[in-house]
Amino acid sequence: MSQVEENQVAPVVDENAPSKAALKKAAKEAEKAQKKAEIAKKQAETQPVYVPPKLTLEQMKDAKFGDMPLHQSQPEFTSDNQFTDIKLLTPGPVKIRAYLHNVRATGKSAFTILRQRQFTLQAVFFGEKDMIKYINSVPKESYVEVEGIYKASEQPINSCSISGFELEITRFFAITRAVSMLPLQVEDAARPDSAFEVKDTVFVKPGRDTRFDNRILDLRTPANQSIFKVRMAIQQSFMKFLIEKNFMQITSPKIISGSSEGGADIFSLQYFGQPACLAQSPQLYKQMSIAAGFQRVFEIGPVFRAEKSHTHRHLCEFTGMDIEVEVFQHYHEVLVILDQLMKFIFKNTLETCQEEIDFIRKQFDLKMPPTIEWTEETVIVDFRDGAKWLQEAGYKQSEVEDLNTENERALGKIVKEKFHTDFYILDKFPGSIRPFYTMPDVDDNRFSNSYDMFIRGEEICSGAQRIHDPEYLKERIVAKGINPDTLKDYIDAFRYGCPPHAGAGLGLERIVMLMLGIEDCRQCCLFPRTPERLTP
Ligand code: ATP
Ligand code: MG
């Protein structure tokens, strides 16, 4: 027996032991509970439990309702899909598969709501009691196959996204049943915050951890389905714009030797006995691609940061959207590209995702600010001017120190008041707060050819002109206190001739969050990774 186990069985004198009276009371209550359970058991025995019909493949042909068999392959494969997407239904007989969003039955009818992605449709059945009983036995969130007649509804159905039509059910099958006690009700997860803020409300707001612990259910809400459509639109706009501008898409390695760009925020790992880590950004490799003659590159990929930050804008794994380009005369060439790129993303996303944005607004209702404003000619603020404006407004801000979150927000407000824009660029950051590869400003080397972009006063992007001379690069690395041996391959990349270049790294989750005005970037990430969360 181990020491621990021995300790556990050692006699202990417990001063807080219950009194005799308390023990007697507890025994009485246990007896009561047992009696109650016996009565319930007897009742259950006399009332037969409903057993839904489980169909075989053969029975499926004629049955009107029942649970589908697991192996439902038809005898012959045809590429002709008989199922219609809920958004493409036309009046007449139809067949769809969907989640059972809601179900309720009376003696004569069953009312259901079917859901595909963010869209819901009412489906009703009037007829045989057996079938009503069956439909009512299927738990919410089960995946079902339904056949029926799609037709105009007599009255608008406000509880569904498709309000002018409904489905009159003729056949109804459960493909897979959800458990009946769901850890999270999709309807609750989809309710706007205002529904929980009403006095005496019966609704219980699901907590953030409950949502993320049960992300599969949480993701089924119309707003969440829509967020991921917007996210995709942003990525697609980013790619479309850059491809048209002759950029090359690259995929750089995510397992890298040593300690990435240095610093404490790295996830270390063992690579067959060699120290390695997950890339903190594609920085070094996108520059090496420029050295390899690619001229203009972009990448969309995972970025890993072991930051123990518990903020609304930090994840331990996020999606980076990066660019790097050759510059010819001035690093502002890249600012022109970034500016046009962001405006293309804004316009394209707002145009193509209007319906999704409406769904998102419905759930995040009052808390969401209106869509962002921007100016045709982008506002580029010099860091020194930004610092001066902050000082004038009463904030403590030096010319050569980084902005903290509060000042970043405050400067966003000042810029919005001055120029009526939620999007702007801050240029010429102090060199001391930027990474070793940043090109200093030739006129005043306290500053550098580096910039950040902001939406609603929060950083979405950092970028700079890079040092393309190997000896100068090495000097800067040493000056920053980093051992140049750990960056040998990177420095050597510039020994074979390299064009002057500049680039930028954008955070996708932050852009989604700030464009939409959502509170937390975790909501814009499929399965977020934070210091406390590695699952699901
Ligand atoms: P911050 O100061 O906000 O922590 P950063 O300056 O450390 O960000 P960069 O290294 O400049 O971040 O990364 C480029 C971009 O990647 C940022 O502008 C931001 O959009 C995004 N980003 C950085 N860190 C995170 C993170 N932990 N989670 C989500 N996005 C991030
Ligand atoms: Mg930054």
UniProtKB/TrEMBL annotation:
<dbReference type="InterPro" id="IPR004365">
    <property type="entry name" value="NA-bd_OB_tRNA"/>
</dbReference>
<keyword id="KW-0963">Cytoplasm</keyword>
<dbReference type="InterPro" id="IPR004364">
    <property type="entry name" value="Aa-tRNA-synt_II"/>
</dbReference>
<dbReference type="GO" id="GO:0005829">
    <property type="term" value="C:cytosol"/>
</dbReference>
<dbReference type="GO" id="GO:0017101">
    <property type="term" value="C:aminoacyl-tRNA synthetase multienzyme complex"/>
</dbReference>
<dbReference type="InterPro" id="IPR006195">
    <property type="entry name" value="aa-tRNA-synth_II"/>
</dbReference>
<dbReference type="GO" id="GO:0004815">
    <property type="term" value="F:aspartate-tRNA ligase activity"/>
</dbReference>
<dbReference type="Pfam" id="PF01336">
    <property type="entry name" value="tRNA_anti-codon"/>
</dbReference>
<dbReference type="InterPro" id="IPR012340">
    <property type="entry name" value="NA-bd_OB-fold"/>
</dbReference>
<feature type="region of interest" description="Disordered">
    <location>
        <begin position="1"/>
        <end position="45"/>
    </location>
</feature>
<dbReference type="Pfam" id="PF00152">
    <property type="entry name" value="tRNA-synt_2"/>
</dbReference>
<keyword id="KW-0648">Protein biosynthesis</keyword>
<dbReference type="GO" id="GO:0003723">
    <property type="term" value="F:RNA binding"/>
</dbReference>
<comment type="similarity">
    <text>Belongs to the class-II aminoacyl-tRNA synthetase family. Type 2 subfamily.</text>
</comment>
<keyword id="KW-0067">ATP-binding</keyword>
<keyword id="KW-0436">Ligase</keyword>
<dbReference type="InterPro" id="IPR004523">
    <property type="entry name" value="Asp-tRNA_synthase_2"/>
</dbReference>
<keyword id="KW-0547">Nucleotide-binding</keyword>
<feature type="compositionally biased region" description="Basic and acidic residues">
    <location>
        <begin position="26"/>
        <end position="44"/>
    </location>
</feature>
<dbReference type="GO" id="GO:0006422">
    <property type="term" value="P:aspartyl-tRNA aminoacylation"/>
</dbReference>
<dbReference type="InterPro" id="IPR002312">
    <property type="entry name" value="Asp/Asn-tRNA-synth_IIb"/>
</dbReference>
<feature type="domain" description="Aminoacyl-transfer RNA synthetases class-II family profile">
    <location>
        <begin position="228"/>
        <end position="536"/>
    </location>
</feature>
<dbReference type="GO" id="GO:0005524">
    <property type="term" value="F:ATP binding"/>
</dbReference>
<keyword id="KW-0030">Aminoacyl-tRNA synthetase</keyword>
<protein>
    <recommendedName>
        <fullName>aspartate--tRNA ligase</fullName>
        <ecNumber>6.1.1.12</ecNumber>
    </recommendedName>
</protein>
<dbReference type="InterPro" id="IPR045864">
    <property type="entry name" value="aa-tRNA-synth_II/BPL/LPL"/>
</dbReference>
